[in-house]
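dude i think i finally got it to work??
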Amino acid sequence: MNHPSQRDRREQALPALDRFFEQQSRGASLATQMRNDRVRDRLMEFLAEADMSRCLDLRENAQLAATRARGDGFFGVFGLEELLVCLVRFVDDDWLLEPVTDARAQVMLAGRLAAWLQRSGLLDRDLLGCAAYETEAAVEAARVALGSSRKEPPAADRPALRLIRGGRADP
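look at this
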């Protein structure tokens, strides 16, 4: 398997995010485009400022702190794989936009971004581990907490995840 270099992964991150948000806003109403812009701005603020201790390990947090101290951003040291991992934190209550309609848009776009990244071919799957599942679970929990119903059915090519306890699947 041909793995992109760490530098290549970082350099493709911002253009990939631009592409994603452009695709999400294409053909949308002006109000939706503006809401998507607010979510993108919030994501950039999150990547520039957020405490990532829940999603990155100690070494990675130290790298991020040093990068931020130099004035570089998240993508100065990390790529899209780490972004996917950190989306778990982006849908936490303390980072959700106000009003609730913007928060719902943020959660929806975080879920779509996670799915888009997984389908894009831009991720090095060897670096992901369970990040995709953890992100999906965090997005679903945020969606439920906001009282918004899931409008998109689960992908047909992927079975629903269920916990197995004592040899029996939870309903």
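The chain has a mean pLDDT of 84.
im so relieved honestly
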